[in-house]
Amino acid sequence: DQQVKQNSPSLSVQEGRISILNCDYTNSMFDYFLWYKKYPAEGPTFLISISSIKDKNEDGRFTVFLNKSAKHLSLHIVPSQPGDSAVYFCAASVVDDYKLSFGAGTTVTVRA
Amino acid sequence: SQTIHQWPATLVQPVGSPLSLECTVEGTSNPNLYWYRQAAGRGLQLLFYSVGIGQISSEVPQNLSASRPQDRQFILSSKKLLLSDSGFYLCAWSVMAGRNYGYTFGSGTRLTVV
What we know:
The complex is a heterodimer.
Chain A: E1 4-5, E2 10-14, E3 19-25, E4 30-38, E5 45-51, E6 56-59, E7 62-67, E8 72-77, E9 86-94, E10 101-102, E11 106-111
Parallel strand pairs in A: 2-11
Antiparallel strand pairs in A: 1-3, 3-8, 4-5, 4-9, 6-7, 7-8, 9-10, 9-11
Chain B: E1 3-7, E2 10-13, E3 19-26, E4 32-38, E5 44-52, E6 55-58, E7 65-70, E8 73-78, E9 87-94, E10 104-105, E11 109-113
Parallel strand pairs in B: 2-11
Antiparallel strand pairs in B: 1-3, 3-8, 4-5, 4-9, 5-6, 7-8, 9-10, 9-11
């Protein structure tokens, strides 16, 4: 049972514009959320995270928003750059559980 | 600093052959270790995790097994590979450091079973 869902398998955006990636979850016990970025033939790298006590976390061009009532989070990338072209995974964990549940990923392509 | 090594980077194996993928972590003690698989067109699926030497938990029934003979060594094995075992295998580690449960991943192994 997929507890973390990324319903958009791909996203194409023009360089300089905003990329918005969405993620939904079903487990109300999740209290920590992360985004990972993955290039082909490489392992995912940590991008940004948010605790359930917050609704927004910002790091440079990357902002993650959390809507607990909707069980929804999103990642905003502004402005999008060619180097942002990658697969982005949403992940979540339950308090005191070190296991992460991952979504299926969204492939972002930034067009010049 | 902590590093994670995973090898080989690519592997082509015939159906029915054995498999051994190795992962080692440096710069940390008693890490939690994980094996994930990314099948073609799918997300990251947790296969095994370990919280200590000799302690292995399996998340899904499959043709694979895992072992942790040393604190910072994690091995993924199979006695007889199936075509469905093809995929991109990732090792990762984490520590329970405050509220950050983030993983650090290795560079992955692309396994093709033919």
